[in-house]
Amino acid sequence: MFPDEIKLLDIVRKYAQNTSCLNVYRFIPEICQLQVQLNNKVEYLPLNTESYQINIKDVFVWTENFYEFVDIAVSTKTRYRFIILAPNQGDINFQLNHKNVIKTLQNYILHPNGIMILLIRDSSFILDPYIRPGADRITKYTLSQNLIKTNVKPHQSYAFYGLDF
To answer: For the chain, what is the largest distance between any 2 Cα atoms, rounded to a whole number of angstroms?
Structure first.
């Protein structure tokens, strides 16, 4: 976990208790550990990232690719109430495909009462205008006060909400 991401733990404490959590892309051990401590079912889907040795008990690690994972989750009617998307800095695949990834997770994987947090370590990242109206920019809640007062924003964060069809 990067120092500027510490405040994200407050969001996890507030919204991820006794529920199902999915962490996608970058592995952030502090978040997974807290999710386990809060009595959550915790899963990790590593995408476009190096393979991490996960040493946290009670964290299930998916080995499938994104679309295989989605197929399995949809066929088993698996939904998550709390999802964190944290692509690696400079992940071109995510930047090119983020609209599809976010909409797929929001439409098929995120529980109707769930919340999905996008934490992206790229200050030049621009969220696709098609999905921007359904997202809240929450960067000011995930940065420490000393960084909020500066023009330096080491990450951006957005919240997306479950859809009830």
So the answer is: 46
